[in-house]
Design goal:
Shape of chain A: elongated
Order of helices and strands of chain B: EEEHEEE
CATH architecture of the largest domain in chain A: 2-Layer Sandwich
Largest sheet of chain A: 7 strands, mixed
Oligomer: heterodimer
CATH superfamily of the largest domain in chain A: Probable tRNA modification gtpase trme, domain 1
CATH topology of chain B: Folate-binding fold
CATH topology of the largest domain in chain A: Gyrase A, domain 2
Largest sheet of chain B: 4 strands, antiparallel
Structural class of chain A: alpha+beta
Shape of chain B: globular
Number of domains of chain B: 1
Radius of gyration of chain A: 37 Å
Number of domains of chain A: 5
Number of strands of chain A: 50
Helix content of chain A: 10-25%
Radius of gyration of chain B: 14 Å
Distance between the termini of chain B: 32 Å
Number of strands of chain B: 6
Strand content of chain B: 35-45%
């Protein structure tokens, strides 16, 4: 059933397609072409929400993107729920479910409205002044209470069921905004031969022309002209994006556009992405973003039923809705007279037009007077009445005198227009203040952009069309095309002109006069901020929060400026304007994330033996992007039990371990040895082919960056390994030095991490397991000693076989082409069965290496450790003339006594395993804050030793060996004895076996 | 997103690049001969210019080469890009 306030004919709605929807559980009908706002207004429903701070009843202020009040949550279920949508931009669809926000228990009765009564306690900055003591109340009382009472919508309770897409596009000319200026610009650019993209945030293109029932362009009514224009643009292959909001202008002419592909459809019909993110890189950009009407700041200007005049005109003309029965029009600009005439045409009784100006002579006011409307110049509204809807307005002469209370259910207000310079300003373009319209307009662009039409302060349809065509041609010309000659449009239209009004209206009576509707900032708040000493508009903005809401101050910035300017006694242009930030209107997280969610959020890297580990019920851990098997539990084993079993098996028999995640870099070329000699602290020139060397790499500041084993395969070829996480930064650093510091060296670097899989076989049985598999490699102790490398075949697979150990046991690392690794892994595991081989994971690897005091870069080191600090002084080739970081090692701070050094710790109670990261002190009885000597870096239970072990970095640590130190914990103090960092087989006999 | 002019590949989006700090900070040929103060300056002191800044970029996901570029730090506009070893084009004369 059609709403009681629906006009019988006209509008762009499709009366043959009625749509049913609910708002706060109550059923309504509207038509295709309605927004949620226009459909609710057609039923006389103005009350849509409660305000942010005072919980005041709020209605629909505007008809578009600038809407600060009418925010709703939309979605039939939690998986399709979107909060904080502007009802003025939500297209109606069959079955739409919407709810109001920020009210409890209901929209018409909201207990939070108490805030309005106690509002003298809640002035600007009240949270800085009021909720200061006691400090303990902040987290537990004040913050939760404030957060519950204030705020907008709520987050959905289920994961988003829709999906999102991303597209990239390039064009010669991007036109943002498809109002008259944008359409004219797009045609001029396309006619010149440029590739053009035209985007507009609305479902229908045409902008202000969609609500213009009076204008004639080239002899056609505006809406017919728009249709013809769109057909023309399509025939010229202009890419047209509707429902597409250009929300951000990024450097180098890139514009982010959020396109609502199916968001305007019922969830059951969404067979396409809900939204699509466009990243458009344009040669030239025409900004035709229009203007927003400025509210007037008078007491009680926020009651439901008080609306911007041009928006009221749009509801009447475009949506065929009467926004009220009896209206007062309150204005400081001629354009509102056009709105009044159109509202009267739609059946609204205009009780009065109150104009702040004394003299009003333009063509529109004259027409209003001729139509018999009651025009009161030099008149203000001192206050309004009404609870959930405006019921009266008190008119008062600006010169002073008695007030006249006029009953009404609707007020249309207009302070003139503010050009929408958001995108221009985001692009770092400079603004200038235009006295003629009392607003900021684009001045010097910082990018290849051209502003056209109302967003430059040009009003009047003929001038706007001409400006759009001119800027479109200019953009095409700058993009390298010869502008086509187009004839000017012939326009018949009546336009309102003149400066906009900035600031509070005169003679305010009792009641709050709102500047920023969304953040509940009143004219008094701005005045208070100035009174309290704030001078910069940036400070006033932050103190009062004016303009900081999600509407980006579209309706409030200029009025806030006007009030501040008046209080400070300075012209507006001297106060300056705050920064515009993206997004222009809020953008969903979904469209920004696109496909990057769930399994696609971040790449997952798996090793060639991953499936084998999965089949063996391995427990995995994330190491960077890698999935690594942490341990292989048998039956109901805990991690502790599994790790103890795996550790003992490696020490007593043999273990197999997937070391494929180690970074690997192939270093090739005649100067490869010299290059590595300069990169690593160790000497590489004398390393013989067939030998391995443990290498330490520093940053130029002398601190340990990475470590790994380097094998020399031939005179000019090295197989370099890095830590699992370090491969990219190591390769980047190598490339940096090679390309920029030593370009004379003839060396090639290649990442081979993914090309080679690595199987570690460790333990006393390792050689016996591998010997039958090695086809042409003699792996006997004599032929292949510790720290050697051989190439050949193992079980039919090409290998680079390292004899190396990160466990302290006899061990090998079998590097094979990744594709062959699963097969070889199975072969080794099968061959190992007779030797009681077990598969072990990273947790066991950590324990085994800690028992030997081997460091892990990033665990024992933290970016401030020198090689000597972590016991690797032996690896530094002091005789070499230079290597990366060498000069820094002699800096005074790096050779000073008392540096933290790697040592071992044993707890007095062998069952206590220290917490990694725990601090270490000499005297636990000292006053807090205690003097800390260092911290625990690694800590485990050692099954083979039968007690706990820990590695730690302790000031002057090596001189403290034998001392007792203390680890204070919240519940106790743990005594520890400082020992060598090598706990097991200190002579290293086992790995040389 | 910046559009960065790689001197080898042409303009490419910023995602393909890694920033690599200020350009023309030369490592001494013989660091051992550099005194502590000069070495500390080499390690830590950078100009942090307001205006045209010479900086290093690496086209990591492209040709993988390091190069130098002049960028205005106020506007983010690139003035020039040039290969390692070449003189700053605005000071070449």
């Amino acid at each position: 059933m059609s709403g009681a306030f629906r006009v019988g004919t006209g509008g762009r709605i499709d009366r043959s397609r009625p749509l049913h929807f609910t708002f706060d559980g109550r059923g309504y009908t509207g038509f295709a072409g309605d927004t949620l706002a226009s459909a609710l207004l057609s039923h006389g429903q103005h009350l849509i929400g409660r305000s942010f701070k005072y919980h005041r009843p709020r209605g629909i202020l505007s008809a578009g993107a600038e809407e600060p009040n009418a925010l709703v949550g939309v979605g039939a279920d939690e998986a399709h729920y979107t909060p904080n949508l502007r009802a003025t931009q939500v297209e109606l669809y069959e079955g739409l479910v919407a709810e109001s926000q920020n009210r409890f228990p209901s929209l018409t009765f909201d207990v939070g409205e108490i805030n309005n009564l106690v509002s003298p306690l809640l002035p600007a900055g009240f949270y800085y002044k009021t909720f200061m003591w006691p400090a303990s109340f902040w987290k537990k009382v004040y913050e939760p209470t404030i957060r519950k009472a204030a705020g907008l919508g709520r987050a959905p309770r289920e994961a988003d069921a829709d999906f999102y897409a991303r597209s990239y596009a390039h064009c010669d000319v991007l036109v943002v905004g498809a109002g008259p200026a944008g359409l004219a610009a797009a045609l001029a650019a396309a006619a010149s031969g440029a590739r053009v993209i035209l985007c507009d945030e609305q479902a229908e293109l045409g902008g202000s022309l969609l609500a213009d029932t009076a204008a004639l362009i080239d002899g056609k009514p505006a809406n017919e002209w728009v249709a013809a224009m769109l057909a023309d643009l399509q025939s010229r292959d202009v890419k047209i994006l509707s429902r597409a909001t250009a929300f951000g202008y990024f450097p180098h002419n890139m514009v982010g556009i959020a396109e609502r592909v199916t968001h305007h459809l019922p969830a059951s019909l969404r067979d396409q992405p809900r939204e699509r993110l466009w990243e458009v890189r344009a040669g030239q950009i025409v900004l035709a973003t229009g203007a927003h009407e400025r509210p007037l700041v008078f007491p009680g200007n926020d009651r439901p039923g008080i609306m911007l005049a041009d928006s009221a005109r749009q509801f009447a003309n475009r949506y065929a809705v009467r926004p009220g029965s009896t209206a007062i029009v309150f204005t400081a600009h001629d354009s509102a007279y056009g709105a009044a005439l159109d509202l009267a045409q739609a059946g609204v009784r205009i009780a009065a037009i109150a104009d702040l100006r004394e003299t009003v002579e333009g063509p529109l006011p004259s027409r209003a007077r001729r139509a018999g409307l009651r025009v009161l110049t030099g008149t203000t509204i001192a206050r309004t009445g009404g609870q959930l809807r405006v019921s009266s307005a008190a008119l008062q002469p600006v010169a002073g005198g008695t007030t006249e209370d006029v009953p009404c259910d609707f007020v249309a207000m207009s302070g003139g227009f503010t050009p929408s310079v958001h995108l221009f300003s985001q692009s770092l373009g400079k603004l200038r203040f235009d006295d003629a319209i009392n607003a900021f307009v684009p001045d010097t662009p910082a990018e290849a952009s051209h502003s056209a039409g109302a967003c430059t302060g040009i009003f009047g349809l003929a001038a706007v069309l001409a400006d759009g065509a001119g800027k479109g041609a200019l953009a095409a010309s700058r993009a390298g095309f010869t502008p086509a000659a187009l004839r000017d449009s012939v326009v018949v239209a009546e336009d309102g002109a003149g400066p906009a009004y900035a600031g509070a209206t005169p003679l305010p009576g009792r009641g709050k006069a709102f500047v920023d509707f969304q953040n509940d900032v009143t004219s008094k708040d701005i005045g208070l901020a100035v009174q309290e000493g704030f001078r910069s508009i940036e400070h006033i903005k932050r103190y009062t929060t004016t303009g900081m809401a999600t509407d980006q101050g579209k309706t409030s910035n200029m009025n806030a400026l006007g009030i501040a300017a008046e209080k400070l006694g300075k012209p507006v242009q001297e106060i300056g304007l705050t920064t515009f930030r993206m997004p222009y209107t809020p953008v969903s997280f979904g469209v920004l994330a696109g496909a990057s969610r769930g399994a696609l959020f971040d790449p997952v890297r798996t090793t060639p033996a991953h499936d084998w580990a999965v089949a063996r019920d391995a427990v995995f851990e994330d190491v960077g992007q890698w999935k690594r098997a942490r341990y292989f539990p048998l039956g109901n084993e805990t991690m502790h039990q599994a790790v103890a079993r795996e550790c003992l098996a490696v020490r007593r028999a043999a273990g197999i371990f997937d070391a494929s995640t180690l970074g690997k870099i192939e270093v090739v070329g005649p100067d490869a040895a010299e290059f590595l000699n300069r990169i690593y602290t160790n000497s590489f020139t004398k390393l013989a082919p067939g030998r391995l060397r443990y290498g330490v790499m520093l940053r130029e500041d002398g601190f340990v960056l990475d470590d790994g084993v380097v094998g020399r395969l031939a005179n000019d070829r090295f197989h370099v390994t890095t830590t699992t996480g370090g491969a990219p930064r190591v390769l980047a650093m190598m490339e940096d030095y090679l390309q920029t510091e030593w370009p004379d060296l003839n060396v090639w670097l290649t990442s081979i991490t993914d090309q080679w899989g690595t199987i570690a076989v460790q333990g006393p049985g390792a050689r016996d397991i591998l010997a039958p598999l090695a086809e042409n490699i003699d792996i006997s102790a004599a032929a292949m000693p510790h720290m050697s490398v051989r190439t050949g075949l193992i079980s039919g697979v090409k290998t680079r076989l390292f004899r190396v150990s990160f466990t302290g046991e006899l061990g090998y690392e079998i590097n094979v082409p990744a594709g062959e690794m699963p097969r070889l892994w199975e072969a080794v595991f099968a061959a190992g069965q007779a030797h009681e081989i077990v598969a072990y994971g990273t947790e066991t690897m950590h324990v085994l290496r800690a028992e030997k005091g081997y460091i892990i870069v990033g665990q024992e080191t933290d970016g401030t450790a020198t090689p000597d600090d972590v016991g690797l002084g032996w690896a530094v080739g002091h005789k070499k003339p230079d290597f990366v970081g060498k000069r820094s090692l002699s800096r005074s701070a790096l050779v000073a006594p008392g540096r933290k050094q790697l040592i071992g710790l044993l707890t007095e109670d062998p069952t206590i395993v220290l917490e990694e990261g725990a601090h270490i002190v000499a005297d636990p009885a000292q006053k807090i804050p205690m003097t800390m000597l260092g911290h625990v870096t690694s800590s485990y239970h050692s099954a083979v030793l039968g007690h706990s072990i820990a590695l730690a970095m302790v000031a002057g640590g090596r001189d403290r060996i034998g001392q007792t130190l203390y680890v204070p914990m919240p519940d106790r103090v743990i005594a520890v004895r400082v020992v060598s960092s090598v706990f097991y087989d200190p002579e290293g006999e086992r790995l040389n076996g | 997103m910046l559009l960065i002019p790689c001197p080898y590949c042409g303009p490419r989006p910023e995602l393909e690049f890694r920033y690599a700090g200020e350009a023309h900070v030369a490592r001494a040929a013989q660091p051992a001969c550099v005194d502590d103060e000069a070495w500390a300056s080499f390690l830590y002191m950078r100009t942090n210019l307001r205006g045209v800044h010479a900086e290093r970029w690496r086209h990591t996901h492209g040709c993988a080469r390091f190069f130098n570029a002049l960028r205005n730090t106020l506007t983010d506009q690139f003035v020039a890009s040039y290969k390692v070893g070449e003189l700053r084009p605005d000071r070449a004369a």
